[in-house]
Amino acid sequence: MAARLSSLLAPERIVLSLQSAKRTAALQETAKLLEADPSVVNFQGFYNELLARERLDTTCLGNEVALPHARTEHVKKIVLAVGRSTNGVLFENSNQTVKLMFVLGTPKNNPTDYLILVGALCRLIKDESSRAALMAAATPEAFIATVIELENKLLGPVK
């Protein structure tokens, strides 16, 4: 697996204006983008594990970014959906407001790719100008193009 988030992104799995301001509703709104993904073999099972993980501990990374995730047998390969909120979503379990939510499902038997991906995401969003560029993207396609541009700065162009 490539350590590039862009390889997992698709316009139909990105919502740039979350309607929900509450954590669980926003999480559902974003996760639902994965319901039709062929790599998700049991969406309800995946979603239930996502909620269970979220109850254990906050998935906020700081800087208005959250990474709700589940390592589960309900996905065949890593899946990713993105939710963005201009006003922010309150993650009451950490008392943080989140504007970018990356919902990740990863197979239980593949912790290495999961860790590589989380590391790549953290590097991508640590810079305020990078987060601002992601917040400014006008369309899902522009969001993906911004991710590719940021990855190329960090990792060099794809060979």
From TrEMBL:
Matching CDD domains, A to Z?
PTS_IIA_fru (cd00211)
Give the source species.
Oleiharenicola lentus
Q: What InterPro entries does the record point to?
A: PTrfase/Anion_transptr, PTS_EIIA_type-2_dom, PTS_SugarTrans_NitroReg
Residue ranges of the PTS EIIA type-2 domain?
A: 7-151
Q: Which UniProt keywords apply?
A: Sugar transport, Transport
Name it.
Answer: PTS sugar transporter subunit IIA
